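#struct-help
A.M.: can someone run this one for me? Single chain, 450 residues.
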Amino acid sequence: MSAPSISYIDHVRATIALAWPVIAGQLGHIIIGQVDNLMIGQLGATELAACALANGLFFLVVVFGFGLTSALLPITAEAIGAKTMQKKGQKILREGLWITTIMALVFIGVLIFFIECLPHLGQDPKVVPLAQSYLCIISISVVPMLFFLIFKHFIEGFGQTKPGMYIMIIMVFLNIFFNWLFIYGGWGIPAMGLEGAGWGTLLSRTLGLFMILFYLMRTPSFGAYVNKAMLFQKDKFLRNKILSIGIPSGLQFFFEVGAFSAAVILAGRIDENAQSAHQIAISIASFTYMFYMGIAAAASIRIGKAYGRGDKSFIRKAGIASFLTGLLFVVLFILIMLLFRGPFSTVYIDNPFVSPLIYDLLLIAILFQLFDGIQAVAQGVLRGAQDVKVPAMIAFVAYWVIGIPSAWFLSEYLEWGLIGIWLALTLGLAFGALALSFRFYTRLVQIKSI
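D.P.: on it. C-alpha coordinates below:
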Protein backbone atom coordinates (compact mmCIF):
# COMPACT_ATOMS: atom_id res chain seq x y z
CA MET A 1 0.00 0.00 0.00
CA SER A 2 1.45 3.35 -1.04
CA ALA A 3 1.52 6.46 1.07
CA PRO A 4 0.05 9.68 -0.36
CA SER A 5 2.41 11.16 -2.96
CA ILE A 6 4.56 14.00 -1.64
CA SER A 7 6.96 16.30 -3.45
CA TYR A 8 10.74 16.05 -3.45
CA ILE A 9 10.95 19.29 -1.44
CA ASP A 10 8.76 17.74 1.25
CA HIS A 11 10.96 14.64 1.22
CA VAL A 12 14.06 16.80 1.67
CA ARG A 13 12.43 18.67 4.57
CA ALA A 14 11.40 15.42 6.24
CA THR A 15 14.92 14.00 5.79
CA ILE A 16 16.55 17.08 7.36
CA ALA A 17 14.04 17.04 10.25
CA LEU A 18 15.06 13.46 11.07
CA ALA A 19 18.75 13.99 10.33
CA TRP A 20 19.68 17.06 12.40
CA PRO A 21 19.32 15.42 15.84
CA VAL A 22 21.44 12.49 14.62
CA ILE A 23 24.02 14.97 13.29
CA ALA A 24 24.10 16.76 16.66
CA GLY A 25 24.61 13.45 18.44
CA GLN A 26 27.38 12.40 16.05
CA LEU A 27 29.10 15.75 16.52
CA GLY A 28 29.00 15.03 20.25
CA HIS A 29 31.39 12.12 19.66
CA ILE A 30 33.73 14.44 17.76
CA ILE A 31 33.55 17.08 20.50
CA ILE A 32 34.33 14.49 23.19
CA GLY A 33 37.40 13.42 21.23
CA GLN A 34 38.58 17.00 20.72
CA VAL A 35 38.04 17.86 24.41
CA ASP A 36 39.93 14.74 25.47
CA ASN A 37 42.84 15.72 23.22
CA LEU A 38 42.92 19.28 24.60
CA MET A 39 42.75 18.19 28.25
CA ILE A 40 45.19 15.30 27.91
CA GLY A 41 47.49 17.51 25.82
CA GLN A 42 48.00 19.64 28.94
CA LEU A 43 49.73 16.64 30.55
CA GLY A 44 52.39 16.42 27.84
CA ALA A 45 53.21 14.99 24.41
CA THR A 46 53.87 11.49 25.79
CA GLU A 47 50.40 11.24 27.35
CA LEU A 48 48.77 12.60 24.20
CA ALA A 49 50.63 10.05 22.05
CA ALA A 50 49.55 7.24 24.41
CA CYS A 51 45.93 8.41 24.21
CA ALA A 52 46.05 8.55 20.39
CA LEU A 53 47.58 5.06 20.17
CA ALA A 54 45.06 3.50 22.58
CA ASN A 55 42.04 5.20 21.00
CA GLY A 56 43.22 4.19 17.53
CA LEU A 57 43.24 0.52 18.54
CA PHE A 58 39.98 0.88 20.48
CA PHE A 59 37.99 2.35 17.59
CA LEU A 60 39.56 0.02 15.04
CA VAL A 61 37.81 -2.79 16.93
CA VAL A 62 34.65 -1.03 18.14
CA VAL A 63 33.76 0.55 14.78
CA PHE A 64 32.56 -2.88 13.64
CA GLY A 65 30.06 -2.71 16.49
CA PHE A 66 28.75 0.64 15.22
CA GLY A 67 27.73 -1.04 11.97
CA LEU A 68 26.36 -4.18 13.59
CA THR A 69 24.14 -2.33 16.08
CA SER A 70 22.88 -0.05 13.28
CA ALA A 71 21.02 -3.08 11.87
CA LEU A 72 18.27 -2.46 14.44
CA LEU A 73 17.40 0.84 12.78
CA PRO A 74 16.12 -0.45 9.37
CA ILE A 75 14.67 -3.64 10.93
CA THR A 76 12.66 -1.63 13.47
CA ALA A 77 11.57 0.84 10.79
CA GLU A 78 10.51 -2.03 8.51
CA ALA A 79 8.38 -3.58 11.29
CA ILE A 80 6.68 -0.22 11.90
CA GLY A 81 5.99 0.22 8.18
CA ALA A 82 4.59 -3.32 7.96
CA LYS A 83 2.51 -2.72 11.14
CA THR A 84 4.06 -5.75 12.86
CA MET A 85 5.90 -3.85 15.60
CA GLN A 86 3.50 -4.95 18.34
CA LYS A 87 4.30 -8.56 17.49
CA LYS A 88 8.01 -8.22 16.69
CA GLY A 89 9.23 -5.26 18.79
CA GLN A 90 10.16 -7.22 21.91
CA LYS A 91 11.86 -9.89 19.83
CA ILE A 92 13.90 -7.35 17.83
CA LEU A 93 15.16 -5.68 21.00
CA ARG A 94 15.83 -8.98 22.75
CA GLU A 95 17.88 -10.45 19.88
CA GLY A 96 19.77 -7.17 19.56
CA LEU A 97 20.67 -7.32 23.27
CA TRP A 98 21.92 -10.90 23.06
CA ILE A 99 24.04 -10.17 19.98
CA THR A 100 25.44 -7.08 21.71
CA THR A 101 26.34 -9.06 24.83
CA ILE A 102 28.33 -11.61 22.84
CA MET A 103 29.90 -8.91 20.68
CA ALA A 104 31.00 -6.88 23.73
CA LEU A 105 32.73 -9.93 25.26
CA VAL A 106 34.52 -10.67 21.98
CA PHE A 107 35.65 -7.04 21.64
CA ILE A 108 37.01 -6.96 25.19
CA GLY A 109 38.95 -10.14 24.43
CA VAL A 110 40.44 -8.60 21.27
CA LEU A 111 41.35 -5.40 23.12
CA ILE A 112 43.07 -7.40 25.90
CA PHE A 113 45.08 -9.11 23.15
CA PHE A 114 46.04 -5.67 21.77
CA ILE A 115 47.09 -4.54 25.26
CA GLU A 116 49.46 -7.50 25.49
CA CYS A 117 50.80 -6.86 21.97
CA LEU A 118 51.53 -3.14 22.47
CA PRO A 119 55.15 -3.64 23.68
CA HIS A 120 55.90 -5.52 20.44
CA LEU A 121 54.61 -2.90 17.98
CA GLY A 122 57.77 -0.79 17.90
CA GLN A 123 56.26 2.14 19.79
CA ASP A 124 58.10 4.61 22.04
CA PRO A 125 58.92 2.77 25.32
CA LYS A 126 57.65 5.77 27.32
CA VAL A 127 54.29 5.67 25.54
CA VAL A 128 53.54 1.94 25.82
CA PRO A 129 52.80 1.55 29.57
CA LEU A 130 50.61 4.66 29.56
CA ALA A 131 48.71 3.42 26.51
CA GLN A 132 48.26 -0.02 28.11
CA SER A 133 46.76 1.31 31.34
CA TYR A 134 44.49 3.76 29.47
CA LEU A 135 43.33 1.11 26.95
CA CYS A 136 42.64 -1.32 29.81
CA ILE A 137 40.18 1.15 31.35
CA ILE A 138 38.39 2.26 28.19
CA SER A 139 38.08 -1.37 27.04
CA ILE A 140 35.49 -1.84 29.79
CA SER A 141 33.49 1.04 28.29
CA VAL A 142 32.77 -1.18 25.26
CA VAL A 143 29.88 -2.68 27.24
CA PRO A 144 27.92 0.53 28.00
CA MET A 145 28.80 2.01 24.59
CA LEU A 146 27.38 -0.89 22.58
CA PHE A 147 24.26 -1.28 24.72
CA PHE A 148 23.68 2.48 24.42
CA LEU A 149 23.90 2.16 20.63
CA ILE A 150 21.45 -0.76 20.53
CA PHE A 151 18.84 1.20 22.49
CA LYS A 152 19.56 4.38 20.50
CA HIS A 153 19.11 2.68 17.11
CA PHE A 154 15.96 0.94 18.35
CA ILE A 155 14.44 4.29 19.32
CA GLU A 156 15.60 5.93 16.08
CA GLY A 157 13.88 3.18 14.11
CA PHE A 158 10.60 4.73 15.32
CA GLY A 159 11.73 8.06 13.83
CA GLN A 160 12.53 9.41 17.32
CA THR A 161 16.00 10.87 16.76
CA LYS A 162 15.95 13.63 19.41
CA PRO A 163 16.26 11.52 22.62
CA GLY A 164 19.65 10.15 21.57
CA MET A 165 20.79 13.69 20.73
CA TYR A 166 19.80 15.09 24.14
CA ILE A 167 21.50 12.25 26.00
CA MET A 168 24.63 12.66 23.87
CA ILE A 169 24.79 16.37 24.72
CA ILE A 170 24.56 15.52 28.43
CA MET A 171 27.32 12.93 27.98
CA VAL A 172 29.59 15.57 26.43
CA PHE A 173 29.29 17.77 29.52
CA LEU A 174 29.66 14.80 31.86
CA ASN A 175 32.83 13.76 30.03
CA ILE A 176 34.30 17.26 30.36
CA PHE A 177 33.47 17.37 34.09
CA PHE A 178 34.82 13.90 34.86
CA ASN A 179 37.96 14.56 32.83
CA TRP A 180 38.62 17.74 34.79
CA LEU A 181 37.96 15.96 38.09
CA PHE A 182 39.95 12.77 37.46
CA ILE A 183 42.82 14.06 35.29
CA TYR A 184 43.79 17.04 37.44
CA GLY A 185 42.21 16.04 40.78
CA GLY A 186 39.82 17.93 43.02
CA TRP A 187 37.08 17.58 45.62
CA GLY A 188 39.21 15.12 47.56
CA ILE A 189 39.97 13.01 44.47
CA PRO A 190 43.70 12.68 43.59
CA ALA A 191 45.00 13.63 40.15
CA MET A 192 45.18 10.48 38.01
CA GLY A 193 46.54 11.90 34.77
CA LEU A 194 45.84 9.86 31.65
CA GLU A 195 44.18 7.07 33.64
CA GLY A 196 41.75 9.70 34.95
CA ALA A 197 40.69 10.45 31.37
CA GLY A 198 39.97 6.75 30.92
CA TRP A 199 37.81 6.62 34.06
CA GLY A 200 36.00 9.78 32.97
CA THR A 201 35.19 8.21 29.59
CA LEU A 202 34.01 4.97 31.21
CA LEU A 203 31.80 6.78 33.71
CA SER A 204 30.20 9.14 31.16
CA ARG A 205 29.41 6.24 28.79
CA THR A 206 27.95 4.19 31.66
CA LEU A 207 25.71 7.07 32.76
CA GLY A 208 24.66 7.56 29.13
CA LEU A 209 23.49 3.94 29.05
CA PHE A 210 21.49 4.39 32.26
CA MET A 211 19.91 7.57 30.91
CA ILE A 212 18.71 6.00 27.66
CA LEU A 213 17.47 2.91 29.51
CA PHE A 214 15.58 5.14 31.96
CA TYR A 215 14.04 7.00 29.01
CA LEU A 216 12.95 3.73 27.41
CA MET A 217 11.37 2.37 30.57
CA ARG A 218 9.58 5.63 31.48
CA THR A 219 8.19 6.30 27.97
CA PRO A 220 4.87 4.46 27.46
CA SER A 221 5.47 3.79 23.75
CA PHE A 222 8.80 2.05 24.52
CA GLY A 223 8.44 0.74 28.07
CA ALA A 224 6.59 -2.44 27.11
CA TYR A 225 9.48 -3.54 24.90
CA VAL A 226 11.93 -3.27 27.81
CA ASN A 227 9.70 -4.65 30.56
CA LYS A 228 8.61 -7.65 28.52
CA ALA A 229 11.81 -8.31 26.64
CA MET A 230 11.54 -12.08 27.33
CA LEU A 231 15.33 -12.34 27.48
CA PHE A 232 15.48 -16.11 27.72
CA GLN A 233 13.42 -16.90 24.64
CA LYS A 234 14.92 -17.07 21.17
CA ASP A 235 13.93 -16.10 17.65
CA LYS A 236 16.43 -17.60 15.23
CA PHE A 237 14.92 -15.88 12.18
CA LEU A 238 15.21 -12.38 13.65
CA ARG A 239 18.67 -13.05 15.06
CA ASN A 240 19.89 -14.18 11.64
CA LYS A 241 18.24 -11.15 10.03
CA ILE A 242 20.02 -8.75 12.39
CA LEU A 243 23.32 -10.50 11.70
CA SER A 244 22.73 -10.59 7.93
CA ILE A 245 22.36 -6.79 7.93
CA GLY A 246 24.69 -5.96 10.83
CA ILE A 247 27.79 -7.92 9.83
CA PRO A 248 28.08 -6.44 6.29
CA SER A 249 27.30 -2.98 7.73
CA GLY A 250 30.01 -3.47 10.35
CA LEU A 251 32.46 -4.53 7.65
CA GLN A 252 31.69 -1.36 5.68
CA PHE A 253 32.64 0.75 8.70
CA PHE A 254 35.70 -1.41 9.38
CA PHE A 255 36.99 -1.23 5.80
CA GLU A 256 36.64 2.56 5.81
CA VAL A 257 38.19 3.21 9.23
CA GLY A 258 40.91 0.62 8.60
CA ALA A 259 41.84 2.32 5.34
CA PHE A 260 42.15 5.73 6.98
CA SER A 261 44.21 4.18 9.78
CA ALA A 262 46.52 2.75 7.10
CA ALA A 263 46.71 6.23 5.55
CA VAL A 264 47.95 7.61 8.88
CA ILE A 265 50.75 5.03 8.85
CA LEU A 266 51.67 5.92 5.26
CA ALA A 267 51.73 9.62 6.16
CA GLY A 268 54.00 8.82 9.12
CA ARG A 269 56.44 7.10 6.75
CA ILE A 270 56.95 10.48 5.04
CA ASP A 271 57.69 12.58 8.15
CA GLU A 272 56.03 13.93 11.28
CA ASN A 273 54.94 17.13 9.51
CA ALA A 274 53.05 15.13 6.89
CA GLN A 275 51.44 12.99 9.59
CA SER A 276 50.36 16.07 11.56
CA ALA A 277 48.92 17.75 8.45
CA HIS A 278 47.08 14.56 7.51
CA GLN A 279 45.56 14.20 10.99
CA ILE A 280 44.35 17.80 11.08
CA ALA A 281 42.87 17.69 7.56
CA ILE A 282 41.12 14.39 8.35
CA SER A 283 39.70 15.85 11.56
CA ILE A 284 38.12 18.65 9.48
CA ALA A 285 36.76 16.10 7.00
CA SER A 286 35.42 14.00 9.92
CA PHE A 287 33.39 16.97 11.08
CA THR A 288 31.61 17.25 7.72
CA TYR A 289 31.23 13.46 7.48
CA MET A 290 29.01 13.51 10.59
CA PHE A 291 26.45 15.52 8.60
CA TYR A 292 26.41 12.92 5.85
CA MET A 293 26.05 10.15 8.44
CA GLY A 294 23.02 11.93 9.89
CA ILE A 295 21.39 12.14 6.47
CA ALA A 296 22.21 8.46 5.90
CA ALA A 297 20.52 7.51 9.20
CA ALA A 298 17.43 9.54 8.29
CA ALA A 299 17.34 7.84 4.88
CA SER A 300 17.53 4.40 6.54
CA ILE A 301 14.59 5.22 8.82
CA ARG A 302 12.32 6.64 6.10
CA ILE A 303 13.16 4.00 3.49
CA GLY A 304 13.00 1.22 6.10
CA LYS A 305 9.38 2.10 6.90
CA ALA A 306 8.49 2.28 3.19
CA TYR A 307 10.25 -1.05 2.64
CA GLY A 308 8.09 -2.58 5.38
CA ARG A 309 4.84 -1.45 3.79
CA GLY A 310 6.05 -2.27 0.25
CA ASP A 311 5.80 1.31 -1.03
CA LYS A 312 8.10 1.31 -4.07
CA SER A 313 7.25 4.86 -5.16
CA PHE A 314 8.10 6.27 -1.72
CA ILE A 315 11.41 4.37 -1.69
CA ARG A 316 12.41 5.87 -5.03
CA LYS A 317 11.45 9.42 -4.08
CA ALA A 318 12.88 9.27 -0.55
CA GLY A 319 16.12 7.80 -1.87
CA ILE A 320 16.55 10.49 -4.54
CA ALA A 321 15.63 13.19 -2.00
CA SER A 322 18.30 11.83 0.38
CA PHE A 323 20.92 12.23 -2.35
CA LEU A 324 19.69 15.77 -3.04
CA THR A 325 19.90 16.58 0.68
CA GLY A 326 23.42 15.20 0.81
CA LEU A 327 24.43 17.27 -2.21
CA LEU A 328 23.07 20.44 -0.56
CA PHE A 329 25.45 19.89 2.34
CA VAL A 330 28.29 18.97 -0.03
CA VAL A 331 27.90 22.30 -1.85
CA LEU A 332 27.79 24.15 1.48
CA PHE A 333 30.98 22.53 2.75
CA ILE A 334 32.79 23.02 -0.56
CA LEU A 335 32.03 26.76 -0.40
CA ILE A 336 33.20 26.92 3.23
CA MET A 337 36.48 25.17 2.36
CA LEU A 338 37.08 27.42 -0.63
CA LEU A 339 36.50 30.54 1.45
CA PHE A 340 38.18 29.51 4.70
CA ARG A 341 40.89 27.00 3.87
CA GLY A 342 43.48 29.65 4.73
CA PRO A 343 42.28 30.12 8.33
CA PHE A 344 41.58 26.38 8.65
CA SER A 345 45.21 25.62 7.79
CA THR A 346 46.45 27.59 10.82
CA VAL A 347 43.67 27.27 13.40
CA TYR A 348 44.92 23.92 14.71
CA ILE A 349 48.61 24.59 14.32
CA ASP A 350 50.55 27.59 13.06
CA ASN A 351 53.62 25.81 11.75
CA PRO A 352 55.55 26.91 8.63
CA PHE A 353 56.00 23.27 7.56
CA VAL A 354 52.59 21.85 8.47
CA SER A 355 50.17 24.69 7.63
CA PRO A 356 51.02 24.84 3.87
CA LEU A 357 50.42 21.10 3.63
CA ILE A 358 46.99 21.47 5.26
CA TYR A 359 46.20 24.32 2.83
CA ASP A 360 46.96 22.06 -0.15
CA LEU A 361 45.04 19.09 1.27
CA LEU A 362 41.90 21.16 1.80
CA LEU A 363 41.87 21.92 -1.92
CA ILE A 364 41.79 18.18 -2.64
CA ALA A 365 39.14 17.88 0.10
CA ILE A 366 36.73 19.69 -2.22
CA LEU A 367 36.59 16.61 -4.48
CA PHE A 368 36.89 14.43 -1.39
CA GLN A 369 33.71 16.05 0.01
CA LEU A 370 31.69 15.37 -3.10
CA PHE A 371 32.42 11.65 -3.23
CA ASP A 372 32.42 11.14 0.54
CA GLY A 373 28.97 12.70 0.86
CA ILE A 374 27.48 10.66 -1.99
CA GLN A 375 28.86 7.31 -0.79
CA ALA A 376 27.81 7.90 2.83
CA VAL A 377 24.23 8.76 1.86
CA ALA A 378 24.08 5.87 -0.62
CA GLN A 379 25.05 3.43 2.14
CA GLY A 380 22.22 4.72 4.33
CA VAL A 381 19.67 4.53 1.52
CA LEU A 382 20.62 0.96 0.65
CA ARG A 383 20.77 -0.07 4.32
CA GLY A 384 17.19 1.14 4.71
CA ALA A 385 16.17 -1.32 1.99
CA GLN A 386 18.30 -3.99 3.76
CA ASP A 387 20.73 -4.12 0.83
CA VAL A 388 24.11 -4.42 2.57
CA LYS A 389 26.13 -7.33 1.18
CA VAL A 390 27.01 -5.81 -2.20
CA PRO A 391 27.74 -2.38 -0.60
CA ALA A 392 30.16 -4.13 1.79
CA MET A 393 32.01 -5.64 -1.18
CA ILE A 394 32.05 -2.23 -2.88
CA ALA A 395 33.57 -0.71 0.29
CA PHE A 396 36.28 -3.39 0.33
CA VAL A 397 37.22 -2.71 -3.30
CA ALA A 398 37.04 1.08 -2.87
CA TYR A 399 39.30 1.23 0.18
CA TRP A 400 41.50 -1.87 0.13
CA VAL A 401 41.82 -2.69 -3.58
CA ILE A 402 41.92 0.87 -4.94
CA GLY A 403 42.49 3.37 -2.12
CA ILE A 404 45.35 2.01 -0.01
CA PRO A 405 47.43 0.34 -2.80
CA SER A 406 47.10 3.56 -4.84
CA ALA A 407 48.12 5.62 -1.81
CA TRP A 408 51.27 3.53 -1.40
CA PHE A 409 52.04 3.69 -5.14
CA LEU A 410 51.54 7.46 -5.44
CA SER A 411 53.18 8.45 -2.16
CA GLU A 412 56.20 6.13 -2.17
CA TYR A 413 56.77 4.76 -5.66
CA LEU A 414 56.00 8.00 -7.53
CA GLU A 415 57.10 10.06 -4.49
CA TRP A 416 54.03 12.32 -4.54
CA GLY A 417 54.03 12.29 -0.75
CA LEU A 418 50.96 13.36 1.21
CA ILE A 419 49.22 14.73 -1.89
CA GLY A 420 49.46 11.26 -3.41
CA ILE A 421 47.84 9.68 -0.35
CA TRP A 422 44.91 12.07 -0.49
CA LEU A 423 44.45 11.73 -4.24
CA ALA A 424 44.37 7.95 -3.78
CA LEU A 425 41.79 8.17 -0.99
CA THR A 426 39.70 10.45 -3.21
CA LEU A 427 40.00 7.92 -6.04
CA GLY A 428 38.73 5.16 -3.74
CA LEU A 429 35.85 7.33 -2.54
CA ALA A 430 34.98 8.21 -6.15
CA PHE A 431 34.73 4.52 -7.04
CA GLY A 432 32.60 3.88 -3.95
CA ALA A 433 30.29 6.81 -4.70
CA LEU A 434 29.77 5.80 -8.34
CA ALA A 435 29.33 2.08 -7.60
CA LEU A 436 26.90 2.66 -4.72
CA SER A 437 24.93 5.19 -6.77
CA PHE A 438 24.68 2.67 -9.61
CA ARG A 439 23.57 0.07 -7.08
CA PHE A 440 20.89 2.46 -5.84
CA TYR A 441 19.70 3.07 -9.39
CA THR A 442 19.50 -0.61 -10.38
CA ARG A 443 18.21 -1.85 -7.02
CA LEU A 444 15.78 0.88 -5.99
CA VAL A 445 15.07 3.35 -8.81
CA GLN A 446 14.32 0.56 -11.28
CA ILE A 447 12.76 -1.56 -8.55
CA LYS A 448 10.23 -4.08 -9.78
CA SER A 449 9.51 -5.84 -6.49
CA ILE A 450 10.59 -5.79 -2.86
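A.M.: thanks! The mean pLDDT is 80.
D.P.: also worth noting: The first helix runs from residue 8 to 41.
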